[in-house]
C-alpha cells in the first residue's frame, strides 16, 4: 500500500527535478504578472509559486524554505509541477529520508556484526596458535629435563644431594 503510493511520488520527484533544471527563468518576467492564468503557465518560470486556493502566481519566497501560510497554505501551494503540493512533498521526503537512515543503520549493524564474527574467528585462531606453541614449549621442557636427568645419572648425580646433610 505504502510502496504503491511512494513509487509515483519518487518518479514525480525525479521528473520534477529534471523539469525544473530544464526550465529557465525568462528575464524580466515577474510572477505576479501571470495572475489569472493557469498553473502550468505560472510554473513555466522556476521562480514562481502557484497557489490553488487564491488562483494566484507569486514569486517563490527563497529566504524561507517553505512558503509561509499567510502567502499560501502548504496543501494548496504548487511548485515545479501542478499535481503535487508541498505537504505531500514534505511527507514523501521525510519518509524517504527515514527509509535511507534506517537502511544505513541496518547496513552499519550488519557490518559490525559480521566484523565481530570475523574478530571472534581471529581470536579463536590466535588461541589455537597459542595452545600449539604452549604444547611445543612443554614438549621441549620435557626433553630438556630428560636430557638433564640422563646426564645426572651418567655422572652419578641423580641420588640425594651429598651436601644436604650439612644444611
Notes on the protein architecture:
- The chain is α+β, with helices and mostly antiparallel strands.
- Helices cover 56% and strands 10% of the residues.
- The chain has three helices and four strands.
- It has helices at 2-22, 39-42, 86-154, and strands spanning 48-51, 56-59, 77-79, 81-85.
- Strands 2-1-3-4 form a four-stranded antiparallel β-sheet.
- Strand 1 (48-51) and strand 2 form a beta hairpin.
- It is rod-shaped and about 125 Å long.
Distance between the termini: 96 Å
Which range best describes the helical content: under 10%, 10-25%, 25-40%, 40-55%, 55-70% or over 70%?
55-70%
How are the strands of the biggest sheet laid out side by side? Answer: 2-1-3-4
| Beta-strand share of residues | 5-15%
Largest sheet: 4 strands, antiparallel
Structural class: alpha+beta
The residue ranges in which pLDDT falls below 50 over 5 or more consecutive positions are 15-28
Number of strands: 4
Order of helices and strands: HHEEEEH
3D shape:
rod-shaped
- The overall pLDDT average reads 80
Number of helices: 3
Rg, rounded, reads 40 Å
Overview features:
3 helices, alpha+beta, 56% helix, 4 strands
